[in-house]
Structures are given as C-alpha cells and as structure tokens.
Specification:
Elements: H1 21-26, H2 37-47, H3 77-99, H4 101-111, H5 120-130, H6 146-158, H7 164-169
Helix pairs in contact: 2-5, 3-4, 4-5
C-alpha cells in the first residue's frame, strides 16, 4: 500500500499490545497504525486530529470480515441450538440498529457499563459511520461468502504472500460456516 501510494515501502514495524495501538499512535510513537475507522477514526475526528486514511479497497486489497465470532468445530446439538438462538437474536438486533442507528447507540450508552459508552457524541459518530455495514445488500446479517475469502487468497498469492502450494491447501469454504444463521 505504501508503494502504491508513492512511498518507498521501507519501514520499521513495531507491535504494541493489541488494545494500546491507538494510544501509542496518539503519543507520536509511530507514523502509521491500523485502526477501526468507525471507532478510533471517530475518536480522532472528535479530538480534531486529521488522519490520512488508507482504505484497503483503494489499493485493490480485498478485505474480509470484521469482527468475527468463533465457536468450537465440534458442538453438541444443544450447543448448536443455543448458538442458532443467539445469532437469531443478534441478527434482529442488527436489523433494528441498521434501521435506527442513533437509537441503538443510545440504548448501548444506557445499558453497557464500560467507559467507552459514557460519551454519547462519540457513540453517535461511530454508529453513524458503521451503520451501513450492519447488513448486507439483501438486508441479512452475518452471512459470509467463500468468494470473499477466495478473493483475498488470490490476492495473497498474486502478491507473493503465500505460495501456490499454500493456496491449494486452503479451502475457503472450510474457513467459515453459515450453518447457524437463520436469515
């Protein structure tokens, strides 16, 4: 991405602990950091910090899914049913949030006991920024497609991040399941 944007591409990589990346960046301990634009991007906006945002798609890098939920591969039928129930409820919540993002944000501010949710203005900015991603084009939540994984694997191979042999070993349809979703 650096080279495609006209830079040399030579850099030193530092990896602060996962949840302290943004704080390190704010303290000028780095020139570039990976952020979640709907969150840290809005924190920066609120603080008057102008960011140069490099979106992967602007550099022809296919992006997958974020954030993800994981479960053990082998589950009892009882646990599978619990997961289906949870995901059905989550899908309904996302549909409501997509239709009324500011209302959803206010709900979170009232019911989530975490310092991040003490700032209504920040939550409004963040939720407005991400609300369009809550559902797919068919108004479904949570569905994944192997084509998206394939596009990323192809990009990894074309850009020599994985070999042809490594790519052949990865079956994208085995990387995820939509089995528990009822859309």
């Amino acid at each position: 991405m650096i080279q495609k944007d006209g830079g040399e591409g030579a850099f030193e990589m530092e990896n602060p602990p996962r949840l302290s990346v943004w704080g390190a960046f704010e303290q000028s301990k780095g020139d570039v950091c990976w952020v979640f634009v709907p969150w840290e991007g809005q924190v920066a906006r609120k603080k008057g910090i102008n960011l140069n945002v490099f979106k992967l798609e602007d550099y022809e890098v296919p992006y997958g899914y974020s954030s993800l939920m994981y479960a053990q591969k082998h589950l009892s039928e009882e646990k599978k049913e619990l997961i289906r129930t949870f995901l059905t409820i989550a899908a309904e919540g996302y549909k409501i949030a997509a239709a009324e993002p500011l209302m959803a944000g206010r709900f979170l501010c009232r019911h989530v006991d975490h310092p991040n949710f003490n700032d209504d203005e920040l939550i409004d900015l963040a939720i407005k920024n991400i609300a369009l991603a809550f559902l797919n084009a068919d108004d479904h939540w949570g569905l994944m497609s192997h084509q998206k994984f394939d596009a990323f694997l192809n990009w990894m191979h074309e850009n020599r991040h994985i070999s042809g042999e490594e790519k052949k070993k990865i079956e994208s349809q085995k990387l995820f399941t939509n089995e528990y979703l009822i859309n």
